[in-house]
Amino acid sequence: MATTAPVKKAWRSLAWLLVIIVALIGANAFGVIKDGATWTPQLALDLEGGTQIVLAPTLEDGQSVSGEQLTQAVSIIRQRVDASGVSEAEITTQGNQNIVVSLPGTPDDATLQRIQASSQLQFRPVLLASQTTSQTVGGEVNADGTTATPSAPAPAVDANGQPLSDTPSSQPTGPGDVAWITPALQDKFDNYVCGSDQSAEAGNPASKEPLVTCDPYGLEKYILGPVEIAGSVITDATAQPETSQSGVSTGAWAVQIIMNNEGTKQFSEVSKRLYGSAEPLNRFAFVLDGSVISAPTMQAQITDGRPSITGGFTQESAKGLADQLKFGALPIGFTVQSLDNISATLGTNQLQMGLIAGLIGLLLVVLYSLLQYRLLGLVTVASLTIAAVLAYLLITLLSWREGYRLSLAGVTGLIVAIGITADSFIVYFERIRDELRDGRGIDSAVQSGWKRAIRTILASDGVNFMAAAILFVLAVGNVRGFALTLGLTTIIDIVVVALFTHPILTLLARTKFYSEGHRFSGLDPRQLGAVYRGRAAFRTPTDSVKAKNAGASREAAKRQTIAERKAAELAAGGDGAKTTPADTSSTNTRKES
Amino acid sequence: MGTFAQFGNDLYTGKRSYNIVGRRKLWYIIAAIMILVSILGPIVRGGFTFGIEFSGGSEFQVVAGKDPDQQKAIEAVDSVVPGQTPRVMVVGSDTVRIQTEQLTDEETGQVRKALAETYNVEEDTITSSFIGASWGQDITRQAILALIVFIVFAAVVMALYFRTWKMSLAAIIALLHDLVITAGVYGITGFEITPAAMIGFLTILGYSLYDTVVVFDKIRENTGRGELNDARTFGQSVNLAVNQTLVRSINTSVVALLPVASILFIGAFILGAGTLRDISLALFIGILVGTYSTIFIAAPTYAHLRENEPEIVKHDNRVRAREAANATEVEKSDADATSKKLAAGGSAAEIGS
């Protein structure tokens, strides 16, 4: 058998397909070996069980939230969830308005309360600070994955077993007065472990009370006085290169804060008091969501409302703090949009059922195509199998690289895609049949049918992909997982039909079974109405009115006898082509008014 | 298959032909009636049935085993929050679904406990959800936005691809027809509209156009430059294209429906209400309507839109004149059948970039 150009091309395409599959398997294997990925895609909550909370952040005066604030809100919630000791939580944004928190198992009420609390930025004076030494990770995880509720701390007692006094020895004169530190508070401070679950008041510490807390990294713990200035006085905060007195850049970065009039006044008073005080009373803490994001020492009396914080910032850390101050300045509240708690049994059940539905669907499609296309149906089966393998590998890869989780909606998308993928084969096969009906040999029918089919396939898949892409971009909730699998399978469809189905058919067309048009090949020209005239040559049936092989069919039409023509006219509503150059074209899009 | 292939052959050659484009008035009337029913039906029924996601509330699901007794659930809820009338239904074969008004976290916990005791199951096998009232509105807003963006995009892309805005318009008309009718089926039957159903609904968009593009591609081929000869009027050329793709349309809709039907079956009868059923139900209706509308709405509408163009009118008149002449002609020799080399005029309009 001579290897002609189409055959060479076919083998090349198949080789490419193999390269793609091997590369995907390789990438997955790399992930498994190096990165602890798995050979199966991660599952979303509705298939795995767990709790999903959708939160919508709202500003207190009913405004909507900007993108930066949303990012800020996500990081706040992430800290809260981490602080409550829930492992494997996943926090993502959805659209540009919602935050989705996914937790394994069933979180306790305290965790839920904490997640929903609104966050605010506060200025509090530092009364006491100490570097922490021991660090433990808060909370403990029981075997079943639920977080244990920490027992309430036992009331502090002194050496004699008497409860420690909780009332200040003298009435504090202001927020910065050390008189706030009662024996009980001192004891709480001494026993306070950063990152533990004791700060249940996180997010909303009482503003008129002193606060025991840490910085987010648990490096230092503090006793802070009551709130002295509300965070909302900050109108702007930016990261800037630090300059010395003479205006020369020092190479370090600073955070420049701008306050409104009220803030300027309050801050000026605070700075007068703090400047020159003894350590740690000269420090001032910015508290966001109950933890200290910065506690700088007052280096001057600042009366213009434009303090800048310096101290070994890189550009990145300065920008981080500036963002926290700027976007944390507005108190963000969270309203729970929906809270789903799905038991693991239900999840497993749904996954099983989804897979069963998919298999049944696949089986039905295979049966139907065998019925319709005989052995060509086997090509469909093989193509669908390749598509399924590609889809599985891609989703597993996405799961590892992008943290994609397969949801029930995603599974549905995959199942729905079976039909759309199979349709490409149908379009292609029907095109080949059309070419055969026009009297082409099987070899050239496959090639010219392909040229026409691929255009249709690309156009229709393009529309489909566009739908998936738009759904994905504008998605809310579950739609995203569905849109993703639908879009993915559309691309896979094109890859499979170009790199597998077409090459295979090209090669099959060379086999004796097909080139002689076996009855079961699904491409039997005799059954397709082409008139057989010996090996691979067909005379066009007289009533064919195709102009694709224009010469031949018009010729044939002209050679009809009148009787034939009449008969054909009756059948087809007129025939007997005469070649006048058509003076119309569908590309003519002149608008009529 | 033999007969089906034969059916395909006959459609292809024009030996057997369904006059679809010619009877367009009939299809328009049918479409008008269906759209009217789809709009009036839900109104008569008192609007759509929205799922809990749109009204807000709490929902519990208990896998109750062999004997899902609904009364027990009502009592369990009543013991925690008296005076509520929970909606209880059995989904699938063994699951009880209870919907109540919005409960506090504390009440939710208590109801879970009560249900676990009542049905004698582990508390962590109970699924509970709480949905705020604005959740459904959010989804609806996004869905409508997606719908509008998609239609605008699709219209532009198709107009560019087919090089005529008329094809684009015809396809969009068919698409809207599909959407209205699918929504109508939901409204008339009282199927619950849930976010999952909306996903299905939005997917119909893609499918409906997908199907239309395949058929329009063939129409374009049959009416392209050098294809439109004096044998057929424009409408007849369109009709031939529809007939030639009929086998493919039947095969495609069957193949697309099979998996969807299997999800629908599993989702509705085995799992009960949920994502699977809701998506597949909308899709099932949409695919049926979408396939129908491509053939009976999009193609005739397109022919209708083009038929009044002067060139097409001229061409059609020529065809009719020829037909009349042919009918009266006693003898017509095929004298010019000598030259084999006839300018083919190029095959179907090449797709330019």
Automatic annotation (TrEMBL), chain A:
Part of the Sec protein translocase complex. Interacts with the SecYEG preprotein conducting channel. SecDF uses the proton motive force (PMF) to complete protein translocation after the ATP-dependent function of SecA. NCBIfam families: 2A0604s01 (TIGR00916), secD (TIGR01129). Belongs to the SecD/SecF family. SecD subfamily. One of its GO terms (molecular function) is protein-transporting ATPase activity. This is Protein translocase subunit SecD. Residues 71-126 form the Protein translocase subunit SecDF P1 domain. It is found in: Cell membrane. Residues 146-156 have a biased composition (Low complexity). Residues 335-509 form the Protein export membrane protein SecD/SecF C-terminal domain. Residues 133-179, 569-593 are annotated as: Disordered. Residues 162-173, 581-593 have a biased composition (Polar residues). One of its GO terms (cellular component) is plasma membrane. It comes from Lysinibacter cavernae. Forms a complex with SecF. Part of the essential Sec protein translocation apparatus which comprises SecA, SecYEG and auxiliary proteins SecDF. Other proteins may also be involved. GO terms for biological process: intracellular protein transmembrane transport; protein targeting; protein transport by the Sec complex. It is a multi-pass membrane protein. Keywords: Cell membrane, Membrane, Protein transport, Translocation, Transmembrane, Transmembrane helix, Transport. Residues 222-332 form the SecDF P1 head subdomain domain. The chain crosses the membrane at residues 351-371, 378-400, 406-429, 457-476, 482-509. It comes from the Bacteria.
Automatic annotation (TrEMBL), chain B:
GO terms for biological process: intracellular protein transmembrane transport; protein targeting; protein transport by the Sec complex. InterPro entries: SecD/SecF_arch_bac (IPR022813), SecD/SecF_bac (IPR022645), SecD_SecF_C (IPR048634), SecD_SecF_C_bact (IPR055344), SecF_bac (IPR005665). The keyword Transport applies. The chain crosses the membrane at residues 26-44, 143-162, 169-189, 195-216, 254-273, 279-299. GO terms for cellular component: plasma membrane. One of its GO terms (molecular function) is protein-transporting ATPase activity. Keywords: Cell membrane, Membrane, Protein transport, Translocation, Transmembrane, Transmembrane helix, Transport. This is Protein-export membrane protein SecF. It comes from Lysinibacter cavernae. The gene is secF.
